[in-house]
Specification:
Elements lengths: L2 H8 L2 E6 L3 H13 L4 E6 L9 H10 L3 E5 L6 H7 L4 E5 L14 E4 L13 H9 L5 H10 L14 H20 L3 H13 L3 H9 L3 H24 L4 E5 L12 H4 L9 E7 L4 E7 L5 H4 L4 E3 L3 E6 L4 H12 L8
Helix pairs in contact: 2-5, 2-6, 5-6, 6-7, 7-9, 7-10
């Protein structure tokens, strides 16, 4: 048995901080499905530094955990980390590119393929968690997470699932990510997590999540808004190699968070898309490319991610500075916002 599995079995009160997309949620659900009679505190983590918000820290302190499990992200907040290790053991399972020195943070079991010289973009957190847990009952969740990060081609063993199951899992990965990340609504998030934890198979989850009802309707609306924005970006890409474009949503949905998977159909090796979406207190920015540019390096200091897909967030007053920094790193000269 490995340290990851032993730690989960020994702990009684476990905080799971998870990135709220298909991969992060599937990873979280795999841990919860694999063990019983535990007290869990679930915290969705999607801040620019991938750290806990003040209100989350209050909940964690009150919960008094003996294990903090970070899934599908790694924090860039060392001060917060040093506070949390005084509370409980910390295990971080992630597959994203990390800043120099991050692997040397104290008192943490840090599991990341980058540490072994492997390409992060070829991995998903859910597949790593599946390897660590070795629990056959949760492999269907791993399939959803892997499809969510579009790395199924790297895991041929998952072709043991039927074509129908893979098709349903692919649709579920989109639905979970769209509803969890794109819709900034705690009620939707809570309902979504509840349904996922109730399900016991791909067919079971497909029926209760996409068989009609309020979540199905929300998902369909989000898909339509994504389609509208992709069409706009496609028109701009036909005339420019580097596109800076504002993503808009009439329903105030964080559509920008869910463009990465869909946008691949309109990108080629010479195209780079920088999207931004304006919210009340911040502006989210995402970079996407199929070419040689390392998108993660564009956000060094205020974000991160993978070589081909990365992002960050800044305060409104810092937006022009951030765009200037990105354009300088891209070496594209003057930036024209679409």
């Amino acid at each position: 048995m490995n340290s990851f599995k032993i730690a989960i079995e020994k702990a009684n009160r476990i905080v799971i901080g998870f990135h709220p997309d298909a991969d992060g949620i599937a990873s979280m659900a795999m841990v919860m499905h694999s063990t019983k009679r535990k007290n869990f505190l679930l915290v969705a983590v999607d801040t620019p530094n991938r750290d806990y918000r003040p209100k989350d820290l209050k909940r964690i302190n009150k919960f008094k955990p003996d294990l903090i499990l970070n899934l599908d992200y790694h924090s860039a907040n060392l001060d917060q980390h040093l506070q949390l290790v005084k509370l409980a053991r910390i295990i971080t399972v992630d597959h994203h590119l990390f800043i120099k020195g991050r692997e040397d943070w104290p008192d943490e079991l840090f599991i990341n393929p980058e540490l072994e010289g492997k390409k992060s973009m070829k991995y998903s957190c859910s597949k790593i968690v599946d390897d660590l847990l070795t629990v056959s009952q949760v492999k269907w969740l791993a399939l959803i997470g892997i499809l969510g990060d579009n790395v199924i081609k790297n895991w041929p063993e998952y072709h043991c699932f039927s074509v129908e199951e893979r098709k349903k899992a692919d649709e579920l990965s989109d639905a979970i990510s769209y509803l969890a990340m794109a819709k900034e609504d705690n009620n939707i998030m809570n309902e979504l997590i509840t349904l996922i934890l109730q399900a016991r198979s791909i067919n079971d989850l497909y029926k209760i999540l996409l068989g009609g009802g309020s979540l199905t309707q929300s998902y369909e609306k989000i898909k339509e808004e994504i389609k509208v924005n992709i069409t706009q970006i496609d028109k701009l890409l036909s005339k420019n190699e580097v596109v800076f474009v504002e993503v808009k949503s009439s329903s105030k949905t964080a559509i920008i968070k869910m463009l990465s998977k869909t946008i691949g159909s309109i990108l080629d090796d010479n195209k780079i898309v920088i999207c931004y979406q304006i919210f009340k207190e911040r502006i989210e920015i995402r970079a996407m490319s199929e070419g040689p540019v390392n998108c993660a390096l564009l956000f060094e200091g205020f974000g991160g991610g993978h070589e081909k897909r990365a992002g960050g967030a800044v305060r409104k007053k810092d937006f022009n500075k951030a765009i200037g920094l990105i354009s300088k790193r891209l070496k594209v000269g003057e930036v024209v916002l679409g």
